[in-house]
Structure of Myelin proteolipid protein:
Amino acid sequence: MGLLECCARCMVGAPFASLVATGLCFFGVALFCGCGHEALTGTEKLIETYFSKNYQDYEYLMNVIHAFQYVIYGTASFFFLYGALLLAEGFYTTGAVRQIFGDYKTTICGKGLSATVTGGPKGRGSRGQHQAHSLDRVCHCLGKWLGHPDKFVGITYALTIVWLLVFACSAVPVYIYFNTWTTCQSIAFPSKTSASIGSLCADARMYGVLPWNAFPGKVCGSNLLSICKTAEFQMTFHLFIAAFVGAAATLVSLLTFMIAATYNFAVLKLMGRGTKF
């Protein structure tokens, strides 16, 4: 009953902002990494099939794509681990803040987690220590490790800045594919444009995807329209859109984490209850 009571009390005092942000972070990172990986693979196939016949022209691009795919593996692992740590920090600091304002009665788990920040009294007596035993030790060790919310605020702030750049970069392939799709729409409906169909092209060299000496480097007219109608192009385009949405969701989750952690840290600091600051 002690463990069940601890879990029940912890759920009552759960940091709902951190819970929502954690779910959004996991969803966004999974969407960004999974869809981004497959979209890069699709881009590689489109380039080598339609835009260049010489491997040396897109060899550097392939190396960059493979490097990004490995980075995606590391990004997914890091954010799933860091998201779990931020959730634990949310429980940690929120429990301490609610204890200060009297909105949350602590149990063995609550005391173990909040002792490092609030400097609250520990249970005394051999009998009480025997009842707490393993749960108290685990919670107290976790509390010592998480007793630096200021560092979590700083790390999360830096990650938010970095991820803002990732979010901006994820919009670039969406922009390129959208321009290509718009050109295909003009070819499919020539009455909507005054230009001749033969002059409507998608040039990979213009976006820096291929060097200027790559051949053919661009596809025009009906050939471009046939590419846009392939399932491979449509799937890659939608995967990049999904990856962009995932990057946006991750950015929102990091901002939520940063706001919640900053608020909790400020309250603990101003109330003079922080002993690890």
About this structure: Residues 55-101 form the longest helix (47 residues). Residues 16-96+147-275 form one domain. Residues 200 and 220 are 6 Å apart (CA to CA). The mean pLDDT is 78.
